[in-house]
Amino acid sequence: MIYLLEDDDNIRGFTIYALTNSGYEVQGFSLPSQFRAAVAQQLPELVLLDIMLPEEDGLSILRWLRDNEPTAHLPIIMLSAKSTEYDKVLGLDSGADDYLAKPFGVMELLSRIRALLRRAEKSDSSEVLQIGAVTLNSKRHTVTLCGAPLVLTCKEFDLLELLMRNQGLVLSRSSILQAVWGYDYVGESRTVDVHIRMLRAKFGEEYNIIETVRGVGYCCNPPAKETPL
To answer: What are the Cα distances from residue 106, in Å, to 1, 17, 74, 103, 113?
Structure first.
């Protein structure tokens, strides 16, 4: 089930029609209060979320979803008429997995939905990965920092797992895009940079395990220990 929160009747109706014809089950809402009530009754597999809404804006809804454990890892695509780089970064920094500017093409929307669902539904191994103070359990889909739970978006989790499974190896931005977002993802390498920055902010400087290799990409290693004077 895909939930669509969009107050424009034409866009909501067209999007529901397109997704339904592509085999998806979709439920649309024009008001955040309706959306909140539906989420309380049944969790969706993916959310399409407009930013400019009556009652409250989409970023407020996004934060509400990310702050609650049952919905913290829901794949979320922001839909907005705001298409500047600042608006995209703001949406991603607030916890969205992807951002699509209006007007958008149906084929691109479907491609991004498939990529997110494919990552969310992938079979997890039981391996527990640990680097420094960060522990990732791929079967339980949990991450802890110094033993305390760390709330990540679906894409942040997939990105972190990829880097941790390749500890010590430098992965290019293009290879990360292909592995995490899918070969059919239409986007920029800056998407990777934004998600890396969000992960680092959640780790904090002391426990950051992601290194930047200038001109190449990123790799995971335990934080460097300071040499005593």
So the answer is: 18, 10, 21, 10, 10
Residue with more model confidence, 13 or 119: 13
Predicted pLDDT of residue 226: 44
Of 2-6, 108-112, 117-121, 125-129, give the range with the top mean pLDDT.
2-6
**What is the spatial distance between Cα 177 and Cα 152, in angstroms, rounded to a whole number?**
18
Single-letter code of the amino acid located at 218:
Y
CB 171 within 8 A of CB 163: yes
Mean pLDDT within 116-131: 71
